[in-house]
């Protein structure tokens, strides 16, 4: 029997009367990868915040290697060996990799004990970083400034930092949400090495395939309640989803029954220097065209150009057989294009504004009387979107920040819909959205197509691409490598063209 | 109810509460404070700062800043004074000249900021100096005096016993509140300050919104400049120096966040009144202006601390 390093029992926490965690149990063994699963709002982040000492629990026990962790703060837990790799990576962009790894511990590395320990010893920091990165087997220049690194590399640096802290437990919150498949392989190799060295990993992710590939044990939370802990080999995808959602979802993807309508958008020879070239495709009203490809293949970049966020260097965009030039998103919207960005926080919504104000933001022309806002029509439109898209919100004056990921996404979709587009580009529409809400978003997308809207759906999840698309355009390194019909497309075929 | 929740509430309404408490304390301790003449004096003293603060509130809500307010006061004041000598032009000429100068100056700020992508702090730091120079050039470095009685009425006259600057203040407050809350432009200001890339992706012309706010700020500064010139019956090229700091302080005390996306005209008005009331009461209490500055600084920081406590999540 392998000993357990961390034991949590009867842990509860409420916020102003609402139970975020209710009697949660959790046991982490030494040298295991333990996946923590649950929809958004299931209590995963609250749980992790308590573990690293950011929040204090209301009741329950946390014992880490026999010591009580209930009243520890972040620096206590860090010293004891619990590190967290946050979803939004926390780094100092202007400092080097080595300086970032040892940030806050410069005095220990200065080699001095007296008052002169405040004197920086960058050589020692550098050497130690070199050894560390070497051991991890990652190829990152320790002298490079953090700002020049890719997201995946930054993550590696964070892991290096955790290792250098002698972490016994490393918590990874959605570590693969922003990195490419190849980088995921590197990450998994490092995770396996860590596991072999006896480090325990708590792994949080929404990506099912990953969970089964990497984890030994899976614990599921739902609505703040502990559901079960199972060994990964005992479970399969449907049973895990059922545990998370609390019901069976048999038909994840709605049937395609939309008849192809008139030509909505045609793209001829589109190119943008250094990003993509010679892109040609057509989308018809009522059709869903999937965009598949690896991270960095140019999918989002094409969408940005069509929507007027970036300039095009060549080629033609035709809407309903009329050539258009979208210099700004404003012109694109006027030409009937809507864009739901992959970067929901950055480009999707205004966090400090209400559901209503966000929903009507792109269609103020329909909600105004002269220079004044037409408050009545605004409320009617928002009400309708909340109903149609089943947005879960206390009321329309609630700030969007306080909604769950899936509902924020619906607000963004609602905003785009109110501008009455004929063509909608959905970029990773279900990223960071939990399983139940994903299903609803799929239904919604299919409904839009059935209403005669032409849809381009960009996604990194192959099952989503295969389940939703009528046709699939595959990109590789900025080049279009195939357009597949729904009938001929398979995971293997798409991957073949994606790496071509 | 837990403590953080109470603090949050206090952060939201703290400024109103603080203002009410200070007024109450003053009314009890200094009998002269709560008399009509004294209140009218405060209103008049506050009016110019409040006008500038309304302007800069628009700017700060969009995530910008304007340091050239004081210089715009001087440029508009001097320009108006040049046309305000008795028996030369009708009253409308100096008024439009002064307001036009402010509008032009503000639009120039907006133009440079939107075209160059240089941070507003730097651009308006530059135009602050340019404006001061222009005011000195226009006036040849000397105060412009001998202004017409009708012009001097704007800053010094009364209507039914109410000083004219207070009337202008109230009108400006109403118009600015309407712009911010009821118009599409106001909504766009919050959107641009709250998340500029998302605002652009929603089809908003960020350039237009920024042009508007800096121009409005110029216009309001010009109104302030004309009021000041009229009140001191002289166009002073050195007038308004440092006014930008009081105006920004009023906006911030009133809950406008320097990171953009939040703020209200009512908050700014209360912020300006709070500054006015405190300096008035310190006057009444015979506290020297040296100490007044220390007190004001503490209040600014205290207000922002309260505000940030109010914003903390759970």
Q: What report would you give on this structure?
A:
In chain A, 34% of the residues lie in helices and 26% in strands. Chain A has 500 residues and is of the alpha/beta class. In chain A, the strands form five sheets. Chain A has a six-stranded mixed beta sheet, with helices on both faces. In chain A, helix 16 (435-450) links the parallel strand 19 and strand 20 (454-458). In chain A, helix 5 packs across helix 6. With 314 residues, chain B is mainly α. In chain B, 75% of the residues lie in helices and 1% in strands. Chain B is built from 13 helices and two strands. Chain B has a two-stranded antiparallel ribbon with strand order 1-2. Chain B starts with a helix and ends with a helix. Mean pLDDT of chain B is 90; it is low at 1-5. The A-B interface holds A 15-16, 307, 309, 328-330, 332-334, 339, 341, 346-353, 357, 361-362, 364, 368, 371-373, 415, 419 and B 1-2, 5, 182-188, 190-191, 194-195, 197-205, 261-262, 314.
Helix and strand topology:
The complex is a heterodimer of chains A (500) and B (314).
Chain A: E1 4-15, E2 18-29, E3 33-37, H1 44-51, E4 59-64, E5 67-68, H2 74-80, E6 82-85, H3 97-101, H4 106-109, H5 122-136, H6 151-164, E7 169-173, H7 181-196, E8 200-204, H8 208-214, E9 217-222, E10 225-231, H9 237-245, E11 263-272, E12 276-284, E13 288-293, H10 299-306, E14 314-319, E15 322-324, H11 329-334, E16 337-340, H12 344-348, H13 355-359, E17 368-369, E18 372-373, H14 375-388, H15 405-418, E19 423-427, H16 435-450, E20 454-458, H17 462-468, E21 471-476, E22 479-485, H18 491-498
Parallel strand pairs in A: 3-8, 3-9, 6-7, 7-8, 13-20, 13-21, 16-19, 19-20
Antiparallel strand pairs in A: 1-2, 1-4, 4-5, 9-10, 11-12, 11-14, 14-15, 17-18, 21-22
Helix pairs in contact in A: 5-6
Chain B: H1 3-29, H2 36-61, H3 69-82, H4 92-116, H5 120-138, H6 149-156, E1 158-159, E2 162-163, H7 164-182, H8 184-194, H9 196-201, H10 206-231, H11 243-253, H12 265-284, H13 289-311
Antiparallel strand pairs in B: 1-2
Helix pairs in contact in B: 1-12, 1-13, 2-7, 2-8, 2-10, 2-11, 2-12, 3-4, 3-5, 3-10, 4-5, 4-10, 6-10, 7-8, 8-10, 11-12, 11-13
